[in-house]
Design goal:
Number of helices: 2
Structural class: alpha+beta
Strand order of the largest sheet: 1-2
Largest sheet: 2 strands, antiparallel
Oligomer: single chain
Radius of gyration: 24 Å
């Protein structure tokens, strides 16, 4: 990313990240850790290694899943306690419906990244050539 304003280079930064979101649900379709106010307890996000090392990516995903599971178990215990203590809810529908697993994999070649130094130099050159 190169940011310029009125011919002056403000910042030049190069960042590359790879992220993953892991959803972990504990309980049953009728009642799980995402019930009520605990909806966000299922999602865990984190960074993955940039290289295509399958073992390193698998380890990072396993770690996200493990941390998500520990959080989901605690949230599920809280949900169970709240449902036993609180008055009966009007909405007794299940938290989710069981589905058959599916898998999807898509790989795309990233477009070539811009030459950041050339962009920054071009911006500075443009500023010097202005009348």
């Amino acid at each position: 990313m190169v940011v310029a304003s009125q011919g002056s280079l403000l910042t030049s930064t190069h960042v590359q990240i790879r992220t993953a979101d892991v959803v972990t649900r504990v309980g049953s379709p009728a009642l799980d850790n995402t019930h009520g106010e605990s909806r966000r307890s299922a999602l865990r996000s984190g960074n993955l290694p940039l290289d295509n090392d399958a073992d390193a990516i698998a380890h990072a995903l396993w770690d996200l899943t493990y941390r998500g599971y520990r959080e989901a178990v605690q949230a599920f215990l809280k949900v169970k306690t709240q449902t036993q203590v609180n008055a009966k809810e009007e909405d007794t529908s299940a938290d989710f419906k069981p589905q058959t697993p599916s898998a999807y994999l898509e790989t795309k070649e990233l477009p070539p990244s811009a030459d950041q130094h050339a962009l920054a130099a071009g911006q500075l050159l443009w500023r010097r050539q202005r009348p």
